[in-house]
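Exercise: predict the fold of this chain.
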Amino acid sequence: MRPRIIRHIILALSSLICLGVEAQRSVMPVPLKTGDTIAVISPSSVPDSATIAKGCATLRSWGYVPVLGAHAMSSYHGFAGTADERAADLLWALRDPSVKAIICSRGGDGAVQVLQRIPLQEFRNHPKWIMGFSDVTALHSAEVSAGVMSIHCSMCDGIAMRGERDSVNMIHRKLLQGVLPTYQAPAHPLNQHGEATGILVGGNFSVFCGLAGSEYDFLNRVDEGLILFIEDTDESMSKVDRMLHHLEIRGILSKLKGIIVGHFSKYKAPESGFADMYEMLHEYLQHYNIPVCYDFPVGHHSGKNYPMVEGCLVNLRVGQDGTQIQFVHPE
């Protein structure tokens, strides 16, 4: 082969490698400072005024200035305003330069309606932390799809309930200041040992499964190397089984670098011969040669709900002594 042709091939391969590295980079929003404004919006179900008031009081105790969206406490058929009104609040929070981060008041239902009215370009143009979990998983999926990191974490009620000195709240506060955490979790008998590095995505299982095939689906990035965390509430074991096989049929499970199984609450057990949700999940996940950790403290639970930085590169290590998740700060 001629030297000139070889040089062209090397240059082409180098370009492809560079594109691959660039594709894995998500923008980390700018750290907050004391006195910064945080928008409080309600993209899903109707919150109660006391929940929002307590959440705002906690944000003020952290040194920030909470500002309510115009429709944060509206009510329309169980949602916090019409889809257009809720989308308008999110667009305001993204576009207003005085707003430095966004926290959702609560989950519930309806965030997917908002997404249909927000082009992905809006998330790219205005990279800000979006905070929340449960139904807010839809917004995280959109933001990660747009190449921006977001924080899966407690909302107004959760941060208020735990108190200023709570360890989870302290992690949350430091995240807003740009400090990424490293987590340790106890060993679980169903854990699959191993180590992997990948981009962290996940959240409420039923919510992100509902985005399959859309431009807002963060699982579209699976070829870049993803580590997935899952949690849910009020979903039967048979429903979770169907969602799991949905990922399998799409070819997602075979491409994941690792899986973090969080809390599954308010479901009926036993079902289909399995003692609990973890046993059912293990029946299928054990056939994949990747690290899997069970009972990680994230999701709908009265205890801890560790903040998870979606779109961030993480190192997952599952061993005899437990699980470690280390978030890698972008250079």
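Check your answer against the key: Residues 184 and 194 are 15 Å apart (CA to CA).
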